[in-house]
Write a structure and sequence with these properties.
The protein is mainly alpha-helical and about 475 residues long. The protein has 16 helices and six strands. Helix 8 runs parallel beside helix 11. Strands 3-4-6-5 form a four-stranded antiparallel sheet.
Length: about 475
Amino acid sequence: MSRTLAARPSATLKEVRADHEARPRRRWVARALIGLGLLALVAVVVVAIQHNADRRWHELLRATAALEARLDAESPTRPVLYGEATDGLAHPHYKRAQAAVAALGVGSGDIAQIMRAQANELAGVAHTIKVPASPTAAELIASSQPVIDALAAGAHSHDGRPPILWAKGLSHPTDNLLLARDVVNLALVHAVGAAVAGDHTGAVRIWLDTLQYSGDLLRSGVIISELLGVAGFAIAIREVPVSAALLGSLDQNALRTLRDGLAALDGSLPLFGRSLEAELALFVRHVDKLGWGVLELPRWRAWRYGFSTRLTVAAYGFASMQLAREVRGLVEQARRFDEGEVRRLYEAFAHGSNPIGSVLGNVHSVVKVRLTALAELRVLRLAVDHALGRAPAPLPDPFGGTLRSDVDANGTASFWSDGNRKDTLLKTPARATPPNIRTATPPSRKAPKKGEPQRYMRMGGPK
């Protein structure tokens, strides 16, 4: 009975019964009003989240467009390492070189083995490298001149940077891993072959074209191509005995050409590449083009942002841009590489809820291998100075400080980095080494332990 009726002693039985029957309806109305209020609140929250997601996503698209414009505005030109520059893009010529390698029908392993065997023979070192019966080195050189012509045309082109097709997103075309490496190996077969034939200038020019090709890949703005450039430097400088064989056989004029070309290449390669920022822009374009389903991001992982996938990606997109700026600052402003600090920044960024972390890859690793390639290039510059009979000029170590060198009582020169203390980074595999350059650890030293300076290259006179 309601209080009103209770307060009325004169209330009739009919009124009491009517009041009793009305109570459930009043409760239902109250619950309905509460439910509608909650639904209205949820709707307001959803609309607010959607509005905020749309706003942040369009802000990210505008920031991405500005990033693309900045990257496109960077000067695509770089100095040629010898001779005169020609108009046009380098990358189409490089693609032509890769296609010509593929047309040869020679396996990647066969090309690499022929190159290694040739280098050891040029240095007068016995080896047990198994080379194919066919083609021989001479046959391979004779049949692959179009590769070298295309490589030289690209290396001398005015614009060394491949265009990035932003609208394609992550479907942007990349270089073929095996073909890009085969171009380097085949070019070194030609370089060593020219040195064997006594054409020292030709050998140096092909070597410089190969390094220019690798440098252009480093400038590309796509992570896979940048890593291919790193691999090209490793092959042409330290992983095989080519540098040992060539430096031990080239005459002084050829060495001076090599010295000047290496200095020009070193001066044109920035410490920090374009790939982290470019990959982020390609990712944003990819998602914007194909939709959110391409992410396969479970809704529950977007809980921090109201379960909105779009708002999640927008938030981490801006965080990615901030990460790239901070890493660039660490590398360029301090003029050194603090791996621990870069790793800390990346790990704080790339947690499980971040859909972009896996796209960028391990940022500290990408930056580190790039700086390794630059260190290898500068070590080669020091080695050329030594081969010319000059005291190597001090060169900055990308890992901090200055690249170091010394000469022992036997005339053996060693070059190393005090900044790079990761003992396995540039460890050279055991192999027979030419008498004029030793890439193995000096006999007087054990392999460096963690915390010790890593020796990049050791070279000296005959035993």
